[in-house]
Amino acid sequence: MKAFLGMNLVMGYHILPSLRDYWSTEPDMAVPFILNITPRARFEEIRRNLHFCNNKVVRDITSPDYDRAYKIQPIIDHFNTSFQNALNNTEEQSIDEHMIKFKGHNAMKQYTKINLSNGASNYGADVIPQPIPI
Q1: Under a CB-based contact definition with an 8 Å cutoff, are residues 83 and 92 in contact?
Q2: CA–CA distances in Å: residue 2 to residues 7, 31, 39, 95, 114
Q3: With bands split at pLDDT 50, 70 and 90, how would you rate the model's confidence at 44?
Q4: Residue 46 pLDDT class (50, 70, 90 cuts)
Q5: Residue 80: beta bridge partners?
Q6: Burial of 102 by CB count in 10 Å (0-12 exposed, 13-18 middle, 19+ buried)?
Q7: Contact assessment for residue 11 and residue 34, using Cβ atoms and an 8 Å cutoff
Q8: If pLDDT is split at 50, 70 and 90, which confidence band does 59 have?
Q9: DSSP state letters, 25-94
Q10: CA distance 123 to 53
């Protein structure tokens, strides 16, 4: 599982056109770190079968308790708890909000009306850390 998570981390910053390209034997496409860890079929099997919630206990989409991130909410809660436990509170802290560039289809995607001078897209996923009690 550590290898699988590590491979996903590498794929996050070493971006190739297709998932299958990470296992390519072409010299300009090969990623030896990923190629030598696990076969592509095994990676895809883990990816297909990895779940963080019980799919049989899905809330109705019309329910006021419905959460669009319900499938990954347990892992989000785990990381929030872990990060808060590792936090060293100080008198001066800064919490920032990030806009992650994203042009795909996602119901959580937001559009900002402001003109971004750095050439970034106006579409993205707005990532706001949860408030940390001090």
Answers
A1: no
A2: 9, 18, 15, 29, 40
A3: very high
A4: very high
A5: none
A6: middle
A7: yes
A8: confident
A9: -STTT--HHHHTTS-HHHHHHHHHH--SS-TTSPPPTTSTT--TTTTTHHHHHHHHHHHHHH----SS--
A10: 29
- Tokens 């995607």 locate to 109
d(CA 132, CA 83): 10
Record the tokens describing residue 25, joined without a space.
């034997």
Give the containing element (helix H, strand E) for 9. helix 2-13
Model confidence, pTM: 0.56
Residue 128: how many other CB atoms lie within 10 Å: 10
Q: For the chain, which residues make up each domain, given as ranges?
A: 2-49, 53-83
